[in-house]
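JOB MANIFEST
job_type = single_chain_structure
chain_count = 1
residues = 206
[input]
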Amino acid sequence: MSDDDDDLPKDLAHITPAYRRALWIVVGLNVGYGLVEMVGGFVSGSQALKADALDFLGDGLISFLGLLAIGWSLAWRARSALIQGLFLAVLGVGVLATTGYRVLVLNQPEAGLMGLFAVVALAVNVASAAVLIPHREGDANVRAVWLFSRNDAIGNLAVVVAAGLVWWTGTAWPDLAVAVVIAGLFLQSARSIIRDARADLKASHD
């Protein structure tokens, strides 16, 4: 980060060149591995991997939207964050719905493949979160991008644990349970993003 970046107040973190670079890295990592993990979810039969792949793709989309929002007014950045929060809520509901379907037509995922994809995903998410740590404070749009990346790392750690439990128990229930936990994390973060976006919208009109 340059000296000029260090002099900027936190509420202007979204305009720094370092933040732009961080977002491009996050977009590339998340969209690329999201596509790979979605294939892995279908091959292994893991609902948790599919849910996590959606989180990757969503994170990449949100990070790209964050890039587009750089330079916008506070009101439009807040609207961008509001869209991000609503999108995350839709993802959460979608994961819950597909997990409910899997409960009705239960089958056991391939624990080995599930664990392999989850470990790689965890490494990708830790890398994404690491480049965003210096940029996690700011307006609702900046915080939304950070929450998406943080959720990815937490979700992947849970998927790694679920893969071990699927192997140990010989049942699909740990996989389904983790998918529900990830969905809950989506919904909780969506609520936080929407709340912050509404606060920024109010501030932009004051």
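[summary]
The helical segments are 3-7, 17-44, 47-69, 74-104, 111-132, 140-169, 173-205.
The CA atoms of residues 59 and 148 lie 5 Å apart.
exit_status = 0
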